Each structure stands twice: as structure tokens, then as C-alpha cells.
Amino acid sequence: MGGTNPYIKQAEARLPTKPYQVRFLIGETGEERVIQVDPGQLPYQRSGQPGSILDIALGHGIDLEHTCGGVCACSTCHVIVKRGLPSCSEATEDEEDQLEEAPGLTIQSRLGCQCVPDGSMDVVVEIPAWNRNVVKEDH
Amino acid sequence: MRQPTQTTRVEAIRALSPHVREIVLAPPPEPVRFRPGQWISLHLPVGEKPPLVRAYTLSAPEDPSGRLVLCLDRVSSGLGSEYLFRVRPGDELTFVGPLGNFVLPEPLTQDVVFAARYTGIMPIRCMLLDLQRRPLPVDVTLVYGGPSREELIYHEGLAAYAAREPRFHYHPTLLRPSPGWCGPVGEELHLLHPLLGGRPPDYLPMVCGIKEFARPVRTFFQEQGFERRQVKVETYD
Ligand SMILES: Cc1cc2nc3c(=O)[nH]c(=O)nc-3n(C[C@H](O)[C@H](O)[C@H](O)COP(=O)(O)OP(=O)(O)OC[C@H]3O[C@@H](n4cnc5c(N)ncnc54)[C@H](O)[C@@H]3O)c2cc1C
Ligand code: FES
């Protein structure tokens, strides 16, 4: 075998190379925020995958819950990517495992901390109001 | 409705090794009722956009005093852990929780195999302290790796438990040779293979640590016949 560890599956995220837009629909308040993402400034902060929906949200003062710190260990950063999903990094099995714990799951659901748009499309993201207070005790 | 934060004070700090410290939190205003294996989410006043949110396992079970115990390693250039290496008794910490589902089933009717590396021992140590309150109803095996002898956190307590509880089987290993260590050296998988290779999947596997450790260990258990979801995994990064 070669020198790579076959077990290490990093989420292969392609980062954007040109500016693009993310529109956040904030379920709890009904507010909308439009963010122009500047690839040169990524990551905006230190939680979640660099360039992820969580990174973009927190970097612009949008309050997206992330109780585990953005490491795919809870599901409180659940978002619904209403437009632009094909431009986002593919979900890993780890992400899918956690997502299953999120209430109100849809086929466009992603973990904000793991979902990284590549900038080839503008993206519309809903932060569901029911994300709040999500603690499941058992699998 | 999001879970409310609450604030408490650091009551005591104990260095367990040059890179690991235990932080005891004073009883918070709202008592925290938790199951061994759960964690709290700290909101730390650091970073470009505070609060910086980081998860830490409750490393000792609930006790009547209401104090909470955390134990963490210092990650180099890690914003959160470096902050927690600067806090002193009397400083305030804000948190949410308890959270998480890396917990033992109740009642415990199936043997358990724990695998942990380094600070991944925390939820398991908490479960084991809780289990020690009565004789074990099942066999419990722990395979636990540390970077060096002094960084094999809580080793003495675990070894003492194994000496008095015949159903607790403790298998420590060091990732590198270390002065004064006569036990196994090498990755945890080197111990798991001879211990469990070929055994039917009639036990509960639980794995905790960073992904680099947890992923191949999960794969090992899948090779033993477990479905992916049957292997309970908590990863830190
Ligand atoms: C459910 C849960 C429970 C946790 N419980 C504990 C605990 O009890 N004790 C504890 O020490 N940590 C625990 N962690 C990890 C902790 O939340 C932080 O991720 C860790 O302290 C690093 O944060 P940081 O801000 O210092 O580093 P960051 O600036 O966030 O850097 C993290 C980077 O360091 C690497 N790294 C190296 N060692 C570790 C490590 N031990 N943990 C995480 N990342 C690491 C990662 O690969 C990652 O790239 C837990 C994490 C989760 C999700
Ligand atoms: S913040 Fe916990 S999974 Fe995204």
C-alpha cells in the first residue's frame, strides 16, 4: 500500500476562488441576511470547517447554534440549503449520522459546520427555528 | 427555545501531567443532572468573534455537592484549550448543557468494550467511576492508549479498579516507549486484534478520541461483524 492512511476520510472541501453570495433565512426571527463571501478572508473564525456555512454565519454575526464547537459531534447547526446545494461539499457518513438526530430533517438538510460551498453558485440557507434546544438522549 | 447558558466559577485546578489539567467547577446555580458520558458546551471569551464554543466532557459522575469536573489537554495553538490553561480559581466560565448521547444503555445487560486514546478516556472514566458503585453486572474491557507514561491520564485509578473488580479488564498501551513502562507499546489496534479478533459481535463497542484514532477503530469493529451504527463513537475534532 502507498503512504496514505485509507481510514482517514477528510471532508474534501473545495474552497471558493471567486466571491459569491449566501442568503440566510433566519427562521426564528423571519429576518433575511445577504452575505457576500470573500474567498480571501476565509476562514472568518475558528469554529467549523473553514468556509463552511457555520464559518460564514458566525463571521457575520449570524447566530447559528453550534454546541459541539463545529466538529460534527451534535446536530444543533442543522441548516436547510434551499438553493446551491450542488455547489456544496458532499456530506460524509459522519455528517449523515449526526444529521439523523436533527428534528425537521429534509433532503436539503446539512450540518452548517461541515457544509462548504465552493462558490460556483449563490446559496440560500434556512436556519430552522426548531434548531433550538435539540438534545436527544439516545440513538 | 435554546438551552439556557449559566455561569459558574472555577473552584480548583489540578495538573495531571505537563499537558493535561483537571478543572473543578463550583456548583452552578441550576444543578446539572447528567448521565456519565455527557458533556457541556463552554462559551469562552476568546477568538475573533467571541464567544468561542468548545465541548468538554464531564469527567466525573454527578456528586451530591453539584461540582462539575472537566479534564483537558492543551492543543498547540488551540484557542479554546489555551484559554482554559490560563484560567485560575475564581474565574467565571459560562456553559450550556449537559448534552450528548455517548452513554451506556440502562440497564446494562451486554458486555462492553471501550477503546480510548488520550483525553478520549474522559467519558469512559466517568462511566467507570459510576459503575464502581456496585459490582459489575457484565464484563467491561478497556483498551486505552496514551502518548507517554505520564500522559496516560488516570492510569493508576483504572489499574486499581481492575485489581479489585474481576469483570473489569484493563489494557493500557503507550504510543511510544517511555521510561519506567513495561507494558505494551504501540497503537490500540494492536491490542484489540488479539483480544477480540474472531469474537462474535455480542458486546457493545464504544470508542472515544480524535478522528485519526476513532476511524480505524470503528472499522476494526465493523470487520468484527458490527454495523457502522452499532459502534458508538464520540470524536473530539
Ligand atoms: C463531545 C466532545 C467532547 C469533548 N471533550 C473533551 C475533553 O473532555 N477533553 C478535551 O481535552 N477535549 C475535549 N473535546 C475537544 C475540545 O472540544 C476542543 O476541540 C479541544 O480542546 C481543542 O479546542 P481548541 O480551541 O483548543 O483547538 P482548535 O483551535 O479548535 O484546534 C483544534 C485542532 O487541534 C487538533 N487536536 C489535537 N488534539 C485535539 C484534541 N484532544 N481535541 C480536539 N482537537 C484536537 C484537531 O485535529 C483540530 O484540527 C471534546 C470535543 C467534543 C466534540
Ligand atoms: S456544531 Fe455540532 S455538528 Fe455542527
What does this structure look like?
The complex is a heterodimer of chains A (139) and B (237). Chain A has helices at residues 53-59, 93-99; strands at residues 20-26, 31-37, 78-83, 109-111, 123-127. Chain A has a five-stranded mixed sheet. Chain A has two helices and five strands. Chain A has 139 residues and is of the alpha+beta class. In chain A, strand 1 (20-26) and strand 2 (31-37) form a beta hairpin. Chain B folds into two domains: 6-99, Beta Barrel (Elongation Factor Tu (Ef-tu), domain 3), CATH 2.40.30.10; 112-235, Rossmann fold (3-Layer(aba) Sandwich). Chain B has helices at 79-84, 122-131, 155-164, 188-196, 211-223, and strands at 6-17, 20-25, 39-44, 52-57, 68-73, 92-99, 111-117, 140-146, 168-174, 203-209, 232-235. In chain B, strands 4-3-6-1-2-5 form a six-stranded antiparallel sheet. Chain B has a five-stranded parallel sheet with strand order 9-8-7-10-11, with helices on both faces. In chain B, strand 1 (6-17) and strand 2 (20-25) form a beta hairpin. Chain B is globular and about 50 Å long. The two termini of chain B are 27 Å apart. Chain A binds chain B through residues 5, 7-9, 44-47, 58-59, 61, 65-74, 93-94, 97, 101, 132-133, 135-139, and chain B through 1-3, 35, 41, 47-49, 52-55, 79-80, 96-101, 103, 211-212, 215-216, 219, 228-229, 232, 234-237. The complex binds flavin-adenine dinucleotide and FE2/S2 (inorganic) cluster.
